[in-house]
């Protein structure tokens, strides 16, 4: 195809990507549509032929050979628009590939320094077609990437050259003009692709957890997609005393609190002119004595007017978070039929293992949510919020409690060791606050439902959600005691993470609860895939997901990180597991129909598209993370064998 024809197709396709729905054979946004359903109408690969799926091509980004001092995770979901595949890498490469072969069209290296980011990844890029530009003109279609080192950059989609009229020489430094400046570079990052709506780029941030009381602030900002000019800023910690959220932050330093940031993908509703922002916990995660109160708008789904950044409505999923229960997964916008009425909704899963279904225009729960009393805090200086919101119309997706008698292990010795660990912990079910003796946290800080999010089959009205079922321990250690014990004995417990929480009286210790053999102390399955009927709120099926290791018992399942997609072929595709496989499930029954081994764990969300050769492809970034998920830098594409 001639370059001029490619330019015209690309411009038309990218412009159409702003509308709903996108062209059937393309994947123009992280969740395919900008509302994040992750549903493809393609049915070339289906339940009848998925067993013939095989590797069509592989592509290496070249980053596996880079020596790093920490784990780096390749988690990009590629986009496919106008016959070109676009993706990003943790170290700052933006890559365009031929969708049918994986051959490079262009690579632009934005050169991210390999310093110690807390979550070292890039989950993909965004695309914008300038409606005022002539088709084929420079930067008529732009690839927009927010690198992990917080640079917002635009590139010409046809050749990867910088769009120099944007920001300063093609980039905007997102660390500038924050209310709380980052203490160090690695405290503030961006891991998710921005939302695009109405000619604006709406971008959140990832803020390092638990380091200090006044961590880097988590403002959400909108920039002009053509020039990079700041259009508006919204701070989830209210700074205006007339804001309804202002009095929910109590204490002389409460309004200096940082984080409460949106590190997940922001959903956009162009028809209503809204963006839906999933916010996380305020700083620091595990002690709120300096930020007493309910803490709006942390841990919330917030609908903002896209043109102005003004709050339209909000719904808080955790009050005064003390457990790192971020809204880590992207909101998903869909329409359901309930009691004979069509209702546009926002779906939000959380680390608590609950699925909230909210009216998209008002934020009112479509399925009942009730405030229930939860345990109080015993830590001096803390005031836990007395109630929390529980979904009473949709059952929890993962357990909310684990008793000592349920302590598990593959051998009697493992079981005994796990029981011993649990016996000394405060354990009153979900929302038991962190304590000086140590608290059992179930679900753990990785979830429950996690950042992988959900996929929707709109015709069947099903939400497909991967969840974890593993427990953690969290302990608050008085700072003086911690320092004394370190000085005397070098006090550190193996397998634990310690963070300073500067500005508070405590050091935080946290660990996932494993037995001596390396298996979780919580009973299997450790990971499942759940289908919720959105018309009734009932669980349609709940099946074990993956294996904790090759050869492990199938009933054990696997801890998982990564998202699903659904296709009109009746299939759910998901990787996400420790056994490093991509799988296909029957969307109606949850039966596993196919799997393939990957070069490393697919800690990413797959995507699918229709190539110019008439084939349907399924693509996954199989990068692992350098740890139990393995390590790779490969993109793997699957298609039906002849």
How would you sum up this structure, described in words?
This protein has 642 residues and is mainly β. It contains three helices and 42 strands. The strands form twelve sheets. Strands 1-36-37-38-39 form a five-stranded mixed β-sheet, with no helix packed on it. The protein has a four-stranded antiparallel β-sheet with strand order 2-42-41-40, with no helix packed on it. The two termini are 25 Å apart. The model has no long low-confidence stretch (mean pLDDT 94).
List the helices and strands and how they pair.
Blueprint: H1 3-16, E1 39-40, E2 53-60, E3 73-74, E4 79-81, E5 84-88, E6 93-97, E7 104-109, E8 121-122, E9 126-129, E10 141-146, E11 151-156, E12 171-173, E13 188-189, E14 195-197, E15 200-203, E16 206-207, E17 220-224, E18 230-234, E19 267-269, E20 274-278, E21 300-305, E22 311-316, E23 332-338, E24 341-349, E25 355-359, E26 369-373, E27 387-391, H2 412-423, E28 439-441, E29 455-457, E30 462-468, E31 472-478, H3 479-489, E32 497-499, E33 506-512, E34 527-533, E35 539-544, E36 564-567, E37 571-574, E38 581-586, E39 592-597, E40 607-610, E41 616-627, E42 630-640
Parallel strand pairs: 1-36, 3-8
Antiparallel strand pairs: 2-42, 4-5, 5-6, 6-7, 9-10, 10-11, 11-12, 13-16, 14-15, 15-17, 17-18, 19-20, 20-21, 21-22, 23-24, 24-25, 26-27, 28-31, 29-30, 30-34, 31-33, 32-33, 34-35, 36-37, 37-38, 38-39, 40-41, 41-42
Order of strands across the main sheet: 1-36-37-38-39
Head-to-tail CA distance between termini:
25 Å
Alpha-beta content class: mainly beta
Mean pLDDT: 94
Which residues form runs of ≥5 with pLDDT under 50? none
Largest sheet: 5 strands, mixed
